[in-house]
Each structure stands twice: as C-alpha cells, then as structure tokens.
Amino acid sequence: MLSDALKHKFDTVIARYPLKRSAIVPLLLFAQDEIGHVSDEAVEEIARRVGVRPIEVVEDIGYYSMLHRKPVGRYHFQVCTNISCMLRGGEEIFAHCAKKLGIGHKQTTPDGLFSLEEVECLGACCGAPAMQVNYDYYENLTPEKIDELIEKLRRKDQGSRIKD
C-alpha cells in the first residue's frame, strides 16, 4: 500500500510538469524507493494520476534499467559491460561480483542484502569500468575495490541492524 506521504509527493511532483505524463519516471523512482520495487498498485496509481493507461507506465519501466518490478537487494549492484567498460575490464568486474556475492545476473543473495545486474551503460565511460550501487557511482573499478566495497556495505548493514 502506498503511504500518504508518497501520494503527497506524487501531487507535488506532478504539479511541476506542464504535461503530467512527463512525471512518470520521477514518480516511479519515488515509489520504488518507498516499496523496494514498482508494484502493480504503484503502476495503477501513477497511471491514474498522470492520465495514461497502465501499460504506458509499464513500458517506461521496461525502458529504464534502474526500475524494477520485483524486489532487489538492499544494495543493488549494476555493473556496466558496454563497450568502454568492456574494453577496460567490465566483464571481469561483473564476473568478480557474481563470484564474490554467489549470485548471477538479476539475482539476489539469500539474505536480501545484495542483488546484481549487468547493464548496458551508466554514462560513466571516462571512469570505466564503472558500476552503480543504488544511487552511488563507482568508477575505475578493480576486484580489490569491489571486495572493499562489499565488506564496507556488509559492515554498514550490520551496524544499522544493531541500532534497530
């Protein structure tokens, strides 16, 4: 169920756009941030609010690799393997992440902490190989940098669980 705060945020965002349809992607991102993925309820609500059919919202979801219809891990690794990243080791970085996490493309670790996805382009060609974890970019990656990041995120998660 979508929270009242999210519905209010939808109203605020839609009001900024002269054409309501233009608000679809930001609304999807806000819904995903709250729920962990884009639910059927979110699709229906967004479609109703911007005046389009639900299939048009689903089509936008399919176009953008950062939008997910199923829950992803708390830390979602998106590793670029497009040409610039590939030439600088992107495929090896993806393979290293898969081995280190014990999962493959579009899979999530059993504890729900990490998920992994191979993506086409992150627009970070100058810092190839690159990946995005949630909304944070990491560039000039090496297996050692990946290992350090995974351990840092595990420690961060353990620290937040202690506080809960």
Describe this structure in words.
Strand 2 and strand 3 form a beta hairpin. The longest helix has 21 residues, at 143-163. The protein has a five-stranded mixed beta sheet, covered by helices on one side. The protein has helices spanning 4-15, 24-35, 40-50, 54-63, 83-87, 90-101, 143-163, and strands at 75-80, 107-108, 114-119, 131-133, 136-138. By secondary structure, the chain is of the alpha+beta class. The chain has two domains: 4-63, Arc Repressor Mutant, subunit A (Orthogonal Bundle), CATH 1.10.10; 75-163, 3-Layer(aba) Sandwich (Glutaredoxin), CATH 3.40.30.10. It has seven helices and five strands, in the order H-H-H-H-E-H-H-E-E-E-E-H.
Structural class category? alpha+beta
Low-confidence spans: pLDDT under 50, at least 5 residues? none
So what's the CATH class of the largest domain? Answer: Alpha Beta
Q: What distance lies between the first and last C-alpha atoms, to the nearest angstrom?
A: 23 Å
SSE order in H/E notation? HHHHEHHEEEEH
Number of strands: 5
In which range does the helix fraction lie?
A: 40-55%
Note the main sheet: 5 strands, mixed
Query: How many separate helices?
Result: 7
Number of domains: 2
For the largest sheet, list the strands in their spatial order. 2-3-1-4-5
What are the defining features of this structure?
alpha+beta; 2 domains; five-stranded mixed beta sheet; Arc Repressor Mutant, subunit A; 164 residues; globular; Glutaredoxin
Topology:
Layout: H1 4-15, H2 24-35, H3 40-50, H4 54-63, E1 75-80, H5 83-87, H6 90-101, E2 107-108, E3 114-119, E4 131-133, E5 136-138, H7 143-163
Parallel strand pairs: 1-3
Antiparallel strand pairs: 1-4, 2-3, 4-5
